[in-house]
Amino acid sequence: MNNKPIIALDFPGEHEVFHFLQHFQEPLFVKIGMELYLQEGPDIVRKVKEQGHDIFLDLKLHDIPNTVKSAMKGLAHLGVDLVNVHAAGGIQMMEAALEGLEAGTPVGKKRAKLIAVTQLTSTTEEQMKSEQQIHLSLLESVLHYAKIAKQAQLDGVVCSVHEAKMIANECGEEFLRVTPGIRLAGGDVHDQKRIATPDGARADGSSLIVVGRAITGSRDPLAAYKEVCSLWEGN
Ligand SMILES: O=C(O)c1cc(=O)[nH]c(=O)n1[C@@H]1O[C@H](COP(=O)(O)O)[C@@H](O)[C@H]1O
């Protein structure tokens, strides 16, 4: 798994994906999420992988432990690099996810890293308090989810840049902080609430950044990607 910015391939189908990927000549780190996966199924993972890209399969599993375990066991055959669940599913569910992933990973192959979504980057503290009835600060809630993910032996979490440093301090530098909600300065925020720039993410302790519309929605996706890369790498 490389540490390039992860491009979210939030497209409706295969045609749009391969049209987009034509802009790039190098191996990328891409994210296949539920929009694409639910239309195209596991074949899209195989086809994108055939082009040599690293893959974050973002299906955010959240169900009873047995169901998540079986689903992860099945997904493990796809040979992706990173997968996720919702930390709100609980410690037992996260442990079951890891068990499934380990059981399904073919012998001799590397198991995908498993991370847990804490509070979505589209959630504000007010929404969390009023809708989820969690009476903590958002930072405390994210940190709590990170700690239980660590207790379940996961490899890290999905969080916003704003919580990344605190998680690194509490859970260790090697515990991954994968941060979506990335925007170029002055870019459209869309539905995201807890956002940061790629250079802000680097300074504030992200391990990996996830960037969708700032690249996929650009008239020149390659130029946008290069700008994100140079800010992220600090060039
Ligand atoms: O798990 C994720 O990838 C995820 C978690 C989260 O808290 N926030 C979040 O935006 N994401 C994903 O990251 C991507 C962000 O896309 P953009 O807002 O277009 O950059 C989307 O594919 C989301 O599904």
From TrEMBL:
Task: Enumerate the PROSITE patterns for this protein.
Answer: OMPDECASE
Q: Which reaction does it catalyse?
A: orotidine 5'-phosphate + H(+) = UMP + CO2
Q: Does the keyword Transmembrane apply?
A: no
The stretch of residues making up the signal peptide is none
Q: Which UniProt keywords apply?
A: Decarboxylase, Lyase, Pyrimidine biosynthesis
UniProt keyword ATP-binding present: no
Give the Enzyme Commission number.
Answer: 4.1.1.23
- Which is a GO BP term held by this UniProt record? 'de novo' pyrimidine nucleobase biosynthetic process
Which Pfam family, just one, is annotated for this protein?
Answer: OMPdecase
Occurrences of domain Orotidine 5'-phosphate decarboxylase (ranges): 4-228
GO cellular component terms given for this protein:
cytosol
Q: One MF term in GO for this entry?
A: orotidine-5'-phosphate decarboxylase activity
Q: Which residues form the active site?
A: 58 (for ompdecase activity), 60 (proton donor), 60 (for ompdecase activity), 63 (for ompdecase activity)
User: What InterPro entries does the entry give?
Assistant: Aldolase_TIM (IPR013785), OMPdecase (IPR014732), OMPdecase_AS (IPR018089), OMPdecase_bac (IPR047596), OMPdeCOase_dom (IPR001754), RibuloseP-bd_barrel (IPR011060)
**Where along the chain is substrate bound?**
10, 31, 58-67, 121, 183, 192, 212-213
Per the record, the pathway is:
Pyrimidine metabolism; UMP biosynthesis via de novo pathway; UMP from orotate: step 2/2
* Sequence similarity: Belongs to the OMP decarboxylase family. Type 1 subfamily.
Subunit field text = Homodimer.
Record function comment: Catalyzes the decarboxylation of orotidine 5'-monophosphate (OMP) to uridine 5'-monophosphate (UMP).
| Protein name (record) | Orotidine 5'-phosphate decarboxylase
| Protein source organism | Lysinibacillus halotolerans
